[in-house]
Amino acid sequence: MPNIKSNTALRNNYNDISAFCHGNREPVFITKNGQGDLAVMSIETYEMLNGKLELYRLLDEGRTAVREGRKRPFAGAMSDIRKEIADGRL
């Protein structure tokens, strides 16, 4: 269940809201005049969320490459990398 607080609560209880965000790794939704306005979360939670989004983007990019035939076997790719390292190109 989401944790919802007013903007007044954020102003008056910042330390409590910060402790909740850090302790639970969940956002707190802030309302203004009874309407949703902000989502507040710890930096750690934000970075974790961004990491997941980046992973999903990369997975989608890989799926698209497979669909479009822009792929090659892992062993072949590693062989090419090793050759480039041996040749001093990498």
Describe this structure in words.
This protein has two domains: 39 residues; 40 residues, no CATH class. With 90 residues, the protein is α+β, with helices and mostly antiparallel strands. Strand 2 and strand 3 form a beta hairpin. Strands 1-2-3 form a three-stranded mixed sheet. It contains four helices and three strands; from the N terminus they run E-H-H-E-E-H-H.
The main sheet orders its strands as: 1-2-3
Computed over alpha carbons, the radius of gyration is 23 Å
Mean pLDDT over the residues: 94
Q: How many structurally independent domains? A: 2
Question: Based on CA inertia axes, which overall geometry fits?
Answer: elongated
Number of strands: 3
Helix content: 55-70%
- Overall structural class, as computed from helix and strand content, comes to alpha+beta
How many DSSP helices? 4
Order of helices and strands: EHHEEHH
Distance between the termini: 50 Å
Uncertain stretches of 5 or more adjacent residues: none
Q: Quick one: biggest sheet?
A: 3 strands, mixed
Proportion in β-strands = 15-25%
What is the element layout, followed by pairings?
Layout: E1 3-6, H1 7-12, H2 14-24, E2 28-32, E3 35-40, H3 43-67, H4 74-86
Parallel strand pairs: 1-2
Antiparallel strand pairs: 2-3
Summary tags:
3 strands; 90 residues; alpha+beta; 4 helices
Quick structural gist:
It is built from 4 helices and 3 strands, in the order E-H-H-E-E-H-H. With 90 residues, the chain is an alpha+beta fold.
